[in-house]
Design a protein that fits this description.
Helix content is about 80%, strand content about 0%. It is built from six helices and no strands.
Amino acid sequence: MTEKQNNFIYAEEADVLNVALFGMTAKEWREKNPELANSGNIRDYTDLLHLIILNNLENINAQLIKSGISQKERLITLNQTAKSQIELLKGNKNIKELEYLEKKINNNNLLVNE
């Protein structure tokens, strides 16, 4: 396959994950958020909880692909997994502590860059 074909496949799989977690493709997000799309993408503007879940979904998706599960079935499974992980992890103490540290670091970086 050409590099262009490979890029298309990876973008399509990324959108499977985006739809499963965020309920929209990257293109749909860009269309809804043109001011943010100029400097990043949907994943750049999400919170730590969703990034953790996204990482989990990427690993699960890889296993589902290896098992020969169709894209439609993977999307259903990944969406169900995303919903259950959000419920399980949204109040997690360790994630709250990481979010606190992330905010503190970002605030310090803002002060240093001013």
